[in-house]
Specification:
The protein contains four helices and five strands. It is α+β, with helices and mostly antiparallel strands and about 150 residues long. The longest helix is centred in the N-terminal third of the chain and has 18 residues. It starts with a strand and ends in a 15-residue tail after the last helix.
Length: about 150
């Protein structure tokens, strides 16, 4: 298993994984998410590669996971300075879940964040994504915020 920045040739494999995650979101929140065959736009994928804001997990030549992120510096008069690595999306192929790939990806991203002098890692997760929540908690992440939503009919 190796973790690296993908190339443009990896687009279809990454998009297929992004579609797996997107289908979960559609099933959990059909009021919000629409079905699609392009869960990650090619232009966005190219930008992520150029910014080195995406890493993929490869086993042999097959991409079995990925993470996208951004680093944001937060500073104002009432809060301590933070340089936060914010995970936008993380996915492990359905067929490879439960094999420690997600944990390896989180360990890699934590090392990357340390090298970039980040103060913390942040992500959001759907409350129904219990497997991901277990992985994040096992990794040592804690709930810091709770968001509420009400659909208006």
């Amino acid at each position: 298993m190796k973790i690296e920045v993908p190339t443009i040739n990896d687009y279809e494999q990454v998009n297929d994984l992004a579609c797996q995650v997107h289908e979960l979101h559609v099933s959990w929140r059909p009021d919000l998410f629409l079905p699609t065959k392009e869960a990650i736009a090619k232009e966005r994928f190219v930008n992520l590669i150029e910014e080195k804001s995406i890493f993929v997990v490869k086993i042999e030549d097959k991409i079995v996971g990925y993470v996208t992120f951004c680093i944001v510096e937060k500073e104002n008069l009432i809060l301590r300075f933070r340089k936060q690595l914010s995970i936008d999306a993380m996915c492990v192929d359905n067929k490879y879940r439960g094999q420690g790939i997600g944990s390896s990806l989180l360990e890699f991203i934590e090392k990357y964040a340390k090298e970039a002098n980040c103060t913390d890692i942040y992500l959001t997760v759907n409350e129904e994504n219990t497997n991901a929540i277990k992985t994040y908690e096992k990794f040592g992440m804690k709930v810091k915020n709770i968001a509420y939503s009400k659909q208006i009919k």
